Amino acid sequence: MPTKLAVLAAVLALAGCGGRGAQVCDTPSGLPVPRFVSLKFGEVYARKGPGEDHRILWVWRSRGMPLEVVAETSDWRRVRGPDGALAWAHKRGLDGRLTVMRVKPGQLPMRAAPKADARVVAYLAPSAVAALDQSEGGWRRIKASGEAGWVPAGEVWGAGAPTPCRPRED
Predict the structure, then answer these.
(1) How many other β-carbons are positioned within 10 Å of the β-carbon of residue 82?
(2) Is 105 found in the same domain as 90?
């Protein structure tokens, strides 16, 4: 029969697997891949490969824009932009803050509650970036230009659910 201390240790070990940032994954950063990040600066180089000796493909100029990390090395992240294009970016130009972007045409109503018939409190314009504040089912609470409201997850890009990972084997 296990001791109370052993049972407590097992419960605490299992509890750490579900929370964001509590997991340690078998990746160079220890974080899950894929995952969402955002641009830390208003100018970040998108490169052909993981290194400064690789050709610059383009320059992202939208601070806060969400990107999806699909692969990584110790210093570089292979990321997918909202348009689906893949490139490598140095980790110093990326931020763990979660954001979303309106990639579809037309303004998106931001609602007072996570319900389709809730009162509209503001609108998110096409190509606008907003901070992701909370997730509830198929809804995301976002903040943009001093306004906060709920939008359907499928209407913004970058609102993916956290990716589970395999624990790192130390």
Answers:
(1) 19
(2) no
75 and 107 both lie in a single domain: no
**Distance in angstroms (rounded) separating the CA atoms of residues 113 and 98:** 20
Sequence-separated (6 or more) residues with CB below 8 Å from residue 36: 66, 67, 68, 69, 98, 99, 158, 160
Task: In whole angstroms, give the CA distance from residue 79 to residue 115.
Answer: 32
| Whether residues 110 and 142 fall in one domain | yes
Instruction: Give strand pairing partners of 110.
Output: 122
pTM of the full structure = 0.80
Side-chain-side CA neighbours of 73 within 13 Å: the count stands at 8
Read off the pLDDT of residues 46-72 as tens digits, 9 standing for 90 and up. 999 999 999 999 999 999 999 999 999
